[in-house]
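A note from the maintainers: we've had questions about how concatenated examples are separated. There is no special marker in the raw files; a new sequence line simply starts the next protein. For clarity in this README we add a label.
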Amino acid sequence: MRITRFVLVMATVLALAPAVSSAQDDKKIHVNIGGGPTFNAGDLGDHFGNGWGPAFGVTFDANPMLGFQFEYAYRHFGIKDDAPFFGATDFDANHTTHQLDFNLVFNLAPSGSAVRPYLIGGPGAYHRAVEITKYVGTGVICDPFWYVCGTYPVDQVLGSRGGWDFGYNLGGGVGFRIAEGSEFFVEMRYHHVTGPEIVAINPLPPGVPTASTGGSTNGSYYPLTFGFRF
């Protein structure tokens, strides 16, 4: 339903922007705006459900077949109902990402074609944060995907933790021309982010169950984006 509303809103924006819609097919600079669901995988997917968020980008065409893109995206993920949080009787958290990517866009048909399949990929910087908003438990908690590991005063478990990490993305999509200089696109990408190692800040008491004894915060994301390019 959110995807349907998004498509309808963006179609209205295009209809109210005749100057954009009448742009020439051979223009060198394109703006894209889109959004959609983001699917998780691996250990990250064991902790957080699928997310949602918008993406905005600017692409400069070096030639009809190759472009350079800068893109920003924001994504929000809620905790899964069956997420591991040993030692707690009540727990809630969320995960957000701010993504800055620098991509190459390889058009498999010239920019401005009626149908434009393309490949896209490049490095990026990702600010990832995990916010624990509710915690009732022993204060012993260790899980890299909550960004905590150790024995804490209960009130210090709450809060937001994270930082900037390096990553990269690879994927592809298809653009469908809907007006001179404008297109609707559908795109799927794989993002891999390399995060820090989380280690115990103090010895964990023996015999107290925890999700882990620390580890990597690497994560994989699969955003499916529906949007417009003009």
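[label: protein 2]
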Amino acid sequence: MPTVHANGIDIYYEVQGEGEPIVLIPYLAADQQCYAFQVQDYAKHFKCFTVDLRGAVRSSKPSGTYTTELFADDVAAFMQAAGVERAHVAGLSLGAATGMWLAAKYPTRVKSLSLHSPWPKTDPFLRVVVEGWRIMAQGLGSITDLVIKGLFPWCLTPELYDSHPEVVESLAQFVRGRPMPPVDAFFRQSNAVLDHDVQSKLHSIHAPTLITFGRRDMVTSTRFADPLKNGITNSEVVVFDGCAHAPIYEKVNEFNKRTLAFLKHQSD
């Protein structure tokens, strides 16, 4: 299993495909397999590096304070250690928050930036949602159960539960089949979400940037579209209808087609 030592921790990663490199940064509580539905298409055109963040399953889970800026430092150090000089960078939710810091602090590392379900600074509503997840994690004592019972209802639409329960169940089975971090590591990762604030650094992002949202998302809704579009000069916004926080699962084909078009346009 490939692991590099970078920024003082061990970082697990996997590589699939050939072409220009793309680094995919996972979301809260997830490991690098969370982009399986995207990598199956992306790898036909790009060399996909998927990583486990600090506190995730196969990477180190040291004590201390985690921040989205620290995650970005980790990813930059990972790229250096893995010999990835410059790459397209993509992430959803926490992965997008990390990606913004990466592009702002290490601009020469980022060829293009894809921000899915992003937010520039945690607001009171998002804080209440994440604090609720932390309470559930403590009570359930299982991040697997938290993801299925606590996060899924925010990530998927009610219509998907009603019309395609088999899809929801297949996603639940996928989660049950993946290793999950311990509760204490989830708390450290979620603290980074609560403290996230990259608003003042958006002007430092110069890479071509795609910003996407799910129309039905409440967690990181289109309320964040204007601050991000206005803050990141070379950016465009796309909204996917009929999905919530996780278009990567609810609108796989549409999501992959649109995001691949952007990535190909930014390729040499």
